[in-house]
Amino acid sequence: MRNRDGLTLGYRFTWRLNWLLLHVAGPAEQADDTDPRRRMERERAARVARYRAEQGKS
User: Where are the stretches annotated Disordered (predicted)?
Assistant: First the structure.
């Protein structure tokens, strides 16, 4: 089994679907601090970092 960094299948599926929908039908490209796709990417990276930190404690 491959490591998914603590992200469930449902989370990964809905995240990718939302990201693609924002890419196709979302707002025009914006600055990184206001772009919803970039916000999603930052939130996902934070979730993975939190999971990796918890794994390091164990």
Answer: 28-58
Residue 51 neighbours by CB distance under 10 Å: 14
E strand or H helix at 5: none
CA distance to 23, 24, 46, 50, per residue, from 11 (Å): 18, 20, 14, 15
Sequence-separated (6 or more) residues with CB below 8 Å from residue 26: 36, 37
For residues 48 and 4, the answer to whether their CB atoms sit within 8 Å is no
Tens-place pLDDT, residues 19-49: 999 999 988 888 988 999 999 999 999 999 9
What is the model's pLDDT at position 10?
94
